[in-house]
Design brief:
Number of strands: 23
Shape: globular
Number of helices: 19
Mean pLDDT: 90
Number of domains: 3
CATH architecture of the largest domain: Alpha-Beta Complex
CATH class of the largest domain: Alpha Beta
Strand content: 15-25%
């Protein structure tokens, strides 16, 4: 059995079933074996019906055998977000009060997917009340990101994103009111689609049997390919039985068939929610990719919208939409807070409490503003086919489950900012009820019936992401490579030498790391994994230990390698940069023709201490026309705060705080 099979798209899996290359039960068992092997570490799938699923898979095999008419997803194993009703499974939203609340029938989305042929075998994890960009709760525990177990997979459809990325399921369904499809797709490196509000009926996606359909919130597919989203959306879309008596839905396909026919606007950041340079870099790369293919790309075009007003409208309507589930005590506190907060306080907490306590009169006023936003977007999309913008301000962040969410912070461009600031990007499309789609690869930027607005998911990135579980087809390690990488603690191969090079200094020596073949191999492998998302054209090593790293890294990444040396050590015409030290100055040089103008240059050294030399090296590379998307080293001495001097993201493998 090909190792690539679990990572194929749902369309490919369904095709294999129809062509009898694999049976439905055989395919289900393949995924169940992976669930058994990898889910204990991930905790993505939190409930299963294995015997029931095998029974349904056998019936699906019989349908293939008798040449019955098959649905577009026949035989594809599926899991679904915990918040959807599935007969026989609890629907809890992660709340212990509902742990024994077992659904009696399928939600409309679940039933339509079953009708399309999927073998539904389990449910995936969510945060409490679907209200976090992490996925943890008292009932089921925490879900980890398959690219790095120490990081969040996103939320609230975090279990769905993690299961897809790790090859534990064939297709998924999630919900989205605050980026809950888009965020996990971004953090886990998969595809997701937030439909226009009302396109997919959310019947059965509710807690405690509630039947009213909420404001802003939508349900839609997550998958490993753009074509899967189109297939699943066609399956899911349309009204419920009551509304369906009066109207039907026909989604228009794009009339444009070639990339060069599209007009695309690009928005890499906004003052309301500054985006990390590593994410902006990926958006710029996509824009460059499109330009090279004759797409009309405009990085200045914007709808006639005040984004601060948009953010205000979105947060208050969002919190109003979820306020019904508040207890009386929490609701009364929101009323008191809203009345006492200064009118000029536009913090997330202030807006959240105003939304939680919103009067119907104020809701109507905000709804009027929302519909004016829709008109502004409509006017904009008469000229442009889509807007490319961030999903969130960073890639997946480390687990942080302490305290209240609005008090937590996230590092953006070397500054800690409130994690809730990034709600702005959820509302950029959500406030006006528009569709949005995270995208995992430039090559598919304008495929699969583009509708009005798209958001872009940059490649998985920062902070030495380890492949703890085989994840993507393109960069998936072999089992041997994965096991070796996982077992080695690189810190054990760094020797500490006190009082060198002078008394009072603790020197971290990498010579013992260089001398250990496996540890050195893993060092290069992990650094290469960290650098790949930045797509460097060339590596620049800083004299002299940076050369030891940059040379094998260049081989691993398939790039060139250039040297930055002390003054007077390079032949030919050079460009130099002099920078200040604690006492005096120093100078580094590069050969004038070493890099091409506009080349993406990753800066490499062994250690980040005070950051003086690395910051100077970035400046030198920029002075000769290079673009520096990232710097990387093995060791970071965090107590010296060198990262604060760097104006580019820094990837490090080992951190020492003393």
């Amino acid at each position: 059995m090909s190792l690539a099979l679990p990572f194929q798209t749902a369309k490919q899996l369904a095709t294999a079933v129809r062509k009898k290359k694999i049976g439905c039960l055989e395919l289900l068992d393949l995924y169940l074996k992976r669930v058994e092997a990898y889910n204990p570490e991930l905790n993505a799938i939190i409930a299963t019906d294995i015997e029931g699923a095998r029974k349904r898979a056998r019936a699906a095999d019989q349908a293939v055998k008798r040449a019955a008419k098959l649905g577009p997803l026949h035989g594809v194993p599926m899991t679904i977000k915990e918040s959807f009703d599935v007969a026989g499974f609890p629907t809890t939203y992660g709340d212990p009060a509902f742990k024994d609340s077992v659904a009696q029938q399928n939600s409309l989305v679940a039933q339509r997917m079953v009708n399309a042929g999927v073998t539904l075998f389990g449910k995936t994890n969510v945060p409490l009340n679907l209200a976090d960009w992490q996925s943890y709760n008292e009932i089921y525990g925490s879900t980890n990101n398959p690219w790095d177990l120490s990081r969040t997979p996103g939320g609230s459809s975090g279990g769905a994103g993690a299961a897809l990325a790790a090859g534990l399921t064939g297709i998924e369904a999630g919900s989205d009111i605050g980026a809950s499809i888009r965020n996990p797709a971004h953090y886990c490196g998969v595809w997701g689609h937030k439909p226009t509000w009302g396109v997919v009926c959310p019947k059965g996606h509710a807690l405690n049997g509630n039947v009213a359909y909420p404001d802003i919130n939508v349900v839609g597919p997550l998958a490993r390919g753009a074509e899967d989203l189109e297939i699943a959306l066609d399956v899911m879309a349309g009204p419920d039985a009551i509304d369906g008596r009066g109207w039907t839905l026909t989604l228009p396909r794009s009339k444009k068939k070639k990339l060069r026919d599209f007009k695309v606007a690009v928005l890499p950041t906004d003052p309301n929610a500054e985006v990390d340079h590593s994410v902006q870099s990926e958006i710029h790369k996509l824009a460059d990719f499109l330009r090279k293919r004759k797409v009309k790309v405009n990085d200045k075009a914007r709808p006639a919208i005040d984004t601060s007003e948009l953010n205000d409208v979105y947060i208050r309507l969002l919190r109003a939409a979820t306020s019904a589930r508040l207890s009386d005590a929490v609701y009364n506190q929101a009323i008191a807070d809203a009345a006492s907060l200064p009118a000029g306080d536009m913090s997330y907490f202030a807006q959240m409490q105003r939304g939680n306590a919103l009067s119907h009169r104020t809701w109507l006023q905000l709804n009027e503003k929302r519909h004016r936003l829709r008109l502004a977007w409509d006017a904009f999309f008469k000229d442009y086919d889509l807007m490319i913008c961030p999903i969130s301000v960073t890639a997946a962040f480390p687990h942080d489950q302490k305290g209240l969410r609005h008090l937590r912070t996230i590092a953006v461009n070397n500054r800690n900012v409130p994690v809730v600031d990034q709600i702005f990007w959820a509302g950029y499309s959500g406030a006006a009820l528009l569709p949005a789609r995270p995208r995992t690869a430039c090559r598919s930027a304008c495929r699969s019936s583009v509708r009005n607005m798209a958001t872009i998911r940059p490649s998985p990135s920062p902070s030495c992401w380890r492949r703890n579980i085989a994840v993507s087809n393109r960069h998936r390690p072999t089992a041997e490579k994965d096991a070796m990488s996982k077992d080695i603690d690189l810190k054990k191969h760094i020797r500490s030498i006190p009082d060198f090079p002078k008394p009072g200094i603790l020197f971290y020596d990498i010579s013992t790391l260089l001398a250990h073949a496996k540890a050195w191999h893993v060092t290069i492998e992990r650094l290469a994994d960290a650098l790949r998302p930045y797509k460097p054209d060339v590596l620049a090593g800083v004299e002299s230990r940076g050369f030891l790293l940059a040379a094998p890294l260049a081989l691993a990444l398939g790039t060139g390698f250039v040297m930055l040396r002390k003054q007077g050590k390079l032949p030919g015409t050079t460009v130099r940069h002099t920078y200040a030290l604690e006492y005096g100055t120093d100078t580094i040089e590069i050969q004038q023709d070493a890099i091409k103008k506009g080349a993406r240059v990753a800066l490499i050294d062994d250690l980040l201490a005070t950051g003086g030399t690395m910051a100077a090296a970035v400046t030198l590379l920029e002075n000769v026309g290079g673009i520096v998307p990232v710097a990387a080293c093995v060791i970071e001495l965090t107590f010296l705060d060198g990262r604060k001097r760097m104006k580019v993201p820094v990837e490090t493998l080992l951190k020492y705080d003393s």
